[in-house]
Design goal:
Chain A: Keywords: Cell membrane, Membrane, NAD, Oxidoreductase, Quinone, Translocase, Transmembrane, Transmembrane helix, Ubiquinone. Chain A: Belongs to the complex I subunit 1 family. Chain A: It holds the Pfam family NADHdh. Chain A: It catalyses: a quinone + NADH + 5 H(+)(in) = a quinol + NAD(+) + 4 H(+)(out). The complex is a heterodimer of chains A (352) and B (201). Chain A is mainly α and 352 residues long. Helices cover 65% and strands 0% of the residues of chain A. Chain B contains nine helices and no strands. Chain B is mostly helical. Chain B has a domain at 1-77: NADH-ubiquinone/plastoquinone oxidoreductase chain 6, subunit NuoJ (Four Helix Bundle (Hemerythrin (Met), subunit A), Up-down Bundle). Classes of the chains: A mainly alpha (352), B mainly alpha (201). Chain A binds chain B through residues 13, 16-17, 88, 118-120, 123-124, 126-127, 130-131, 133-134, 137-138, 141, 149, 152-153, 156, 160, 163, 180, 318, 322, and chain B through 1-2, 28-29, 32, 35, 51-52, 55-56, 58-59, 62-64, 67, 70-71, 74-75, 129, 131, 174, 176.
Chain lengths: 352, 201
């Protein structure tokens, strides 16, 4: 795109700047729309599982429900508690929202269809997701209220615990693919199982890691079996208790953007991303575009997230910590050893 | 031009937030400024082409170390008046540390071109990603220091566990397998107590 703008007579700097801004908007705006629609979809999923109707009043089949909600929070007053730390109180939701968006810069929608194709893409995702905890901590501390503060402490401990096992799971994938670049990780999965199935998740050495990653990604985004951060029976609404109107909506949008991101990461790292699941050319004259496969896989994982949220009861906090430190961490460490051993054996041989 | 602008942006913000770390009245604000400084330093490293180090800086320092800092500082019950009264008492000590750091920086800058380690030679620009370059060096030339560093970290970890672990006699640990193995027929007993007798537990 930069080259096109240069042809139109712009200098390189301006062409690059305009191209980047357009690229960001092309990703961010559909993402916002997707968040609105996906909140509606999730409410419909829960409703179906609980034998209710779900939102069905605003617009056809209730499709405009999220926009009505958005308009409502937009028109309300932003209340700042008098004893709150004003600057930090307002910055916290902005941090959550921004961090949820910046990660999309490296998510590949097809070969070459990615905002920045950097060779440390996976590390960038780890770095950005480790920033997410600050939005929660700062919100909890700046509210100057007990429930948000407890929630912030819980959130920080939970994110740090599960990031450790996510790190090791990512190491397993990186070892297998031999690169940190997300596009190359997806391409390395092409025909991984007998040259037919394009998915790391069905590889016997990586399948347990795919499960660990799915569960850890639920814990990382504070989704239901692990939503102790905002367990309403204990902590009201957690770190969002003191927030109202747009600042609350930013938390909400950031949370769902993170959930979609985790769905995308599940699809990209273990289930072939933008590749078709079977490496067979069924329709020789037509290829289904990669982004459709990616979005289809993300929708599947989103359904799994919603399904789990509707059916599984909440963990106790000590059970959560036990799962993270005593089960996932040793398991993922074991698989790092197994996978690197297997790769050394197949690539170098025992004698080396 | 974009690179120059980005450099001045990151450099100014790094220095400004480093100054703010010292001058912020509230320790929590200090830690947050420190995080800001780490973040902008990572931006500077990106501009140098050291993307691996930049990402590690964000993951390790911003994502883990600073979270723990923030955790501790947030939970401290800080008496601001006592903090400020110690200012003049601790000033000479702080000045000495600042002087030592300044001297070290001067020595480091002047030794940069003389030292045998780098020899003032600029690294050749290659197309090899610097994760691979770093890995090749770590597992060939610097294998021994690398393994030693790993061993030291292991010892530190075990040491920390030994120092903080204490077995408490009064705590009843949870046995998860027992909870999982429980069956309804051994957990629930149906009784039909007669009037006025109650239930024996």
């Amino acid at each position: 795109m930069t080259a096109t703008f240069e042809n139109w007579g712009m200098s390189y700097d301006w062409a690059w700047f305009t191209a980047t801004i357009i690229g960001i908007l092309v990703i961010a705006l559909p993402l916002m729309l997707a968040v609105a629609m996906i909140i509606y979809a999730e409410r419909k999923i829960w409703a179906a599982i609980a034998l209710r109707r779900g939102p069905n009043v605003v617009g056809p089949w209730g499709l405009l429900q999220s926009f009505a909600d958005g308009l409502k929070v937009f028109l309300k007053e932003t209340i700042i508690p008098t004893s709150a730390n004003k600057g930090l109180f307002l910055i916290a939701p902005i941090i959550t929202f921004t961090v949820a968006l910046i990660v999309w810069a490296v998510v590949p929608f097809d070969v070459g269809v990615v905002l920045t194709d950097i060779n440390v893409g996976l590390l960038y995702i780890l770095a950005a997701s480790s920033l997410g905890v600050y939005g929660v901590i700062i919100a909890g501390w700046a509210s100057n209220s007990k429930y948000p503060f407890f929630s912030a402490l819980r959130a920080a401990a939970q994110m740090v615990s599960y990031e450790v096992s996510i790190g090791f799971v990512l190491i397993c994938v990186v070892l297998y693919a031999g690169t940190f670049n997300l596009t190359e990780i997806v391409m390395a999965q092409k025909g991984n199982i007998f040259g037919i199935v394009s998915a790391y998740g069905l590889n016997p050495l990586l399948f347990p890691m795919a499960v660990v990653f799915l569960i850890s990604s639920m814990a990382e985004t504070f989704r239901t079996p692990f939503d102790l951060v905002e367990a309403e029976s204990e902590l009201v609404a957690g770190h969002q208790t003191e927030y109202s109107s747009m600042s609350f909506a930013l938390f909400w949008l950031g949370e769902y953007a993170n959930v979609i991101l985790m769905c995308a990461l599940n699809a990209i790292l273990f289930w072939g991303g933008f590749l078709p699941p079977l490496n067979v050319d069924w329709i020789p004259w037509f290829d289904i575009p990669g982004w459709i496969w990616l979005i289809g896989k993300m929708c599947f994982f989103f359904f799994v997230f919603g399904w789990v949220k509707a059916t599984v009861p909440r963990y106790r906090y000590d059970q959560l910590m036990r799962l993270g430190w005593k089960i996932f961490l040793p398991l993922s460490l074991l698989f790092v050893v197994l996978i690197s051993g297997w790769l050394m054996w197949t690539k170098v041989g025992i004698g080396a | 031009m974009i690179a120059v602008l980005a450099f001045y942006l990151f450099a100014t913000l790094t220095i400004a937030s480093a100054v703010a770390v010292i001058f912020a009245r509230n320790p929590v604000h200090s830690v947050l400024w420190l995080i800001m400084a780490f973040f902008n330093a990572a931006g500077l490293m990106l501009l140098l082409g050291a993307e691996f180090i930049a990402m590690l800086l964000v993951i390790v320092y911003v994502g883990a170390v600073a979270v723990l800092f923030l955790f501790i500082v947030m939970m401290l019950n800080i008496d601001f008046a006592a903090l400020r009264s110690g200012f003049s008492k601790n000033l000479p000590f702080g000045l000495i540390i600042a002087l030592v750091l300044l001297a070290e920086m001067v020595v480091a800058v002047s030794a940069w071109k003389a030292g045998p380690v780098t020899g003032g030679v600029q690294p050749a620009a290659t197309t090899q990603p610097n994760i691979e370059a770093l890995g090749e060096l770590l597992y060939s030339r610097f294998l021994f220091p690398f393994e030693i560093a790993g061993l030291i970290l292991l010892v530190a970890m075990i040491g920390a566990i030994v120092l903080t672990h204490r077995s408490r006699g009064d705590a009843r640990g949870q046995k998860v397998w027992r909870q999982v193995d429980r069956r309804p027929d051994e957990a629930i007993k149906l009784e039909q107590p007669k009037v006025g007798e109650g239930v024996k537990l």
